[in-house]
Amino acid sequence: MMSEAQFYDTMRSGLWTALVVSGPILTVALVTGLTIGLFQALTSIQEMTLTFVPKLAAIVATFWMSMGFMSEELISHFQSSIIPIIAGAP
Question: Is the pLDDT of residue 89 over 70?
């Protein structure tokens, strides 16, 4: 049985890993959205696909480039935190 401190430590570690893994994609989506929004405001172009397609392309490219980093972070988290709990190690 997990102690309360171990539970909260595992939860904190999992949330931190989720933040680190999602950071690159969210940052690129934010920067791309702000850039396109600024471009639309300056040119008065209000086309819906102008915001969706470039942001989607930037997110897919970032995901593809950072896939190795994300996998390593998740594997490291599972090997150091989750698997010992499942195996029953203290």
Answer: no
Indicate the pTM of the whole model.
0.81
Residue in the block written with tokens 């086309």: 47
Q: How far apart are CA 21 and CA 24, in angstroms?
A: 7
Closest CA to 16 of 4, 27, 8: 8
Distance, CA of 69 to CA of 61 (rounded, Å):
14
Amino acid at 48: M
Is the distance from CB of 13 to CB of 73 less than 8 angstroms? no
Q: Does 90 score more than 90 pLDDT?
A: no
User: By percentage, how much of the chain surpasses pLDDT 90?
Assistant: 71
Collapsing DSSP to helix, strand or coil, 86 comes out as helix
Report the C-alpha gap between 5 and 49 in whole angstroms: 48
